[in-house]
Amino acid sequence: SQQGEEDPQALSIQEGENATMNCSYKTSINNLQWYRQNSGRGLVHLILIRSNEREKHSGRLRVTLDTSKKSSSLLITASRAADTASYFCATDLGSYIPTFGRGTSLIVHP
Amino acid sequence: KAGVTQTPRYLIKTRGQQVTLSCSPISGHRSVSWYQQTPGQGLQFLFEYFSETQRNKGNFPGRFSGRQFSNSRSEMNVSTLELGDSALYLCASSPGLAGSNQETQYFGPGTRLLVL
Fold first, then answer.
1. CB A108, CB A19: distance < 8 Å
2. A97 three-class SS
3. Residue A21: its H or E element
4. Is B87 helix (H, G, I), strand (E, B) or coil?
5. Termini Cα distance of chain B
6. pLDDT tier at A66 (50, 70, 90 boundaries)?
7. How many helices (H) and strands (E) does chain A have?
8. Which of A48, A66, A72, A83 is deepest in the core (most CB within 10 A)?
9. Which DSSP string do the residues of A34-64 spell out, in sequence order?
10. What's the half-sphere exposure (Cβ side, CA atoms, 13 Å) at B96?
């Protein structure tokens, strides 16, 4: 499969804790994006990181990219119940077809 | 700006029928991409249209087709429906080509299709 693969598949934490999810891919990429999807709805863009970048921040989100390991991580700090959602990474894999992983399902308990 | 809209939101069809789904992109966006999302296969790219031309196509059979109009609105058609076509169909718009993954895609709420 050419998909990026998120890990873990599911994550359950308490409000206030940090949540970390990872994305691995198999071939070289130009960019990697993270999206969030609330149950049964459309995806919402979170962050784009380019292949020449190592880290980006947006509010409580921190994304890292390690092109040598072909992996990225998304850290959500001080999580809230409203962060409950599925999180997807999207890569181009050089094919000009945006490729999404299967997602990490995050549940944040109040 | 209004977001991406998709109609209808829910649809029930029977095997062998055909269906047409509609997507209105954000004003000014020229690219519309379609995705199929199922629990088993995840989110899979169907095709992308830009300026009324199909620019990229995923690995789906010819029963899946689409088109884009001059106002950037897009339709997706599935002919001879199969049970396995039951899915959430998402469309996304972006100002430029989405395929390079350099553009932020803005997703609609999806059309949930159930094939009986």
1. yes
2. coil
3. strand A19-24
4. strand
5. 37
6. very high
7. 0, 11
8. A72
9. EEEE-TTS-EEEEEEEETT--EEEETTEEEE
10. 5
pLDDT score of B29: 93
Q: Are B77 and B18 in contact (CB under 8 A)?
A: yes
- Residue B76 CA to residue B90 CA, distance in Å, equals 10
Pairwise CA distance, residues B43 & B41, whole Å: 7
Element housing B21 (H / E): strand B19-24
Whether chain B has a CB inside 8 Å of the CB on A59: the answer is no
Residue of A nearest to B41 (CA): A102
Q: Which amino acid is at B97?
A: L
Identify the residue among B43, B45, B49, B91 best suited for mutation to test binding to A, counting A beta carbons within 10 A and taking the highest: B43
Contact between residue B88 and residue B95 where contact means Cβ atoms under 8 Å apart: no
How many CB atoms sit inside 10 A of residue A91's CB?
29
Q: Between chains, do B101 and A100 touch, taking CB under 8 Å as contact? A: no
